[in-house]
Structure formats: C-alpha cells, structure tokens
C-alpha cells in the first residue's frame, strides 16, 4: 500500500514537472535557461527516486521469493522410497547438451574436410608422378619439343579453367547459403 502511494506521488510529481516545463518555456528569455535547468534537475532527482523505489521493490520481491522457496524446502518431506526422486532437468542443461552436439558436428565437419584435403594432396602427388612418367615416356618416344610445349600450355590453361570453376562454385555456394538461410 505504501509503495503504491509513493508511486502515485511520484507520478503526480512527474505530471507537475511537465507543467513546470511548459511554464518555464514561457518565462522571459533571461530567466528561461535557469528555469529549465531547475526543472531538469528536479526531473533527474525524481528519476533517481523512481529507480530507488524500483530497486526496493525488486529486493523485496527477491526476499519474498527466497523466503517462499525456503519454506517450501523446509516443508518438503523426504522419504527413502519417495516416488518423486528425480531432479528436473533445467533449460541450461539442455542448452549445454545442444551446444555439445553442435561442437561434435563441427568436429566431424572439420575432420571430413581434413580427410578431403589429404585425399587431394595424395591425388596431386599421384598425378605429378604420372606426369613425370608420361614426360619420360614421351622423351623416350622422341616427341618433339613443340608437342611437349603444347601439352604443357594446355595443362596450364586447364589449371586456370579449374581455378575459375572453383571460384564460380564457391561464389554460387556462398550466394545460396546467404539468400536461402
């Protein structure tokens, strides 16, 4: 009851301050700034009173809640064969479990990416070895240097074509993820 009365008085003070602000704007110019400063100071003080009242109400609410919980705990009877021996799982535990599953999923994703990169490295080594063997065979067969240069030029062009295709694929994947999620 006292808190409601205090809140009503604070609201009344706010409405009076609004009227004072209107009246201060009608003061002569030489007194107007001083009057507005006083009204602003009063508003600031009333806001502090409002905040103090809210803090008091919040502390009182917490005390009452703690007292209620304490009474519930003290009133609860514990038996050896109580059917309600389970502890309810709160949201924090569920949140933690979902974070752990997301973490495991990211680890699996990183692991598969590592495996793919290792496979590509192995293929590169294999292809380099094959390329050397083909060059050795070509030299043995006596292919001309012109044909070899054409093959190397084609391989160089294919490399840029592959890199361009990879870049376009990455851009398309980025745009799909960006606009579809």
Automatic annotation (TrEMBL):
InterPro entries: GOSR2/Membrin/Bos1. One of its GO terms (molecular function) is SNARE binding. SUPFAM superfamilies: SNARE fusion complex. GO terms for cellular component: endoplasmic reticulum membrane; ER to Golgi transport vesicle membrane; Golgi apparatus; late endosome membrane; SNARE complex. Keywords: Acetylation, Coiled coil, Endoplasmic reticulum, Golgi apparatus, Membrane, Protein transport, Transmembrane, Transmembrane helix, Transport. It is a single-pass type IV membrane protein. It comes from the Eukaryota. It is found in: Endoplasmic reticulum membrane; Golgi apparatus, cis-Golgi network membrane. One of its GO terms (biological process) is protein transport. The keyword Transmembrane helix applies. The chain crosses the membrane at residues 160-180. Belongs to the GOSR2 family. PANTHER family: GOLGI SNAP RECEPTOR COMPLEX MEMBER 2, VESICLE TRANSPORT V-SNARE PROTEIN VTI1-RELATED. Involved in transport of proteins from the cis/medial-Golgi to the trans-Golgi network. This is Golgi SNAP receptor complex member 2.
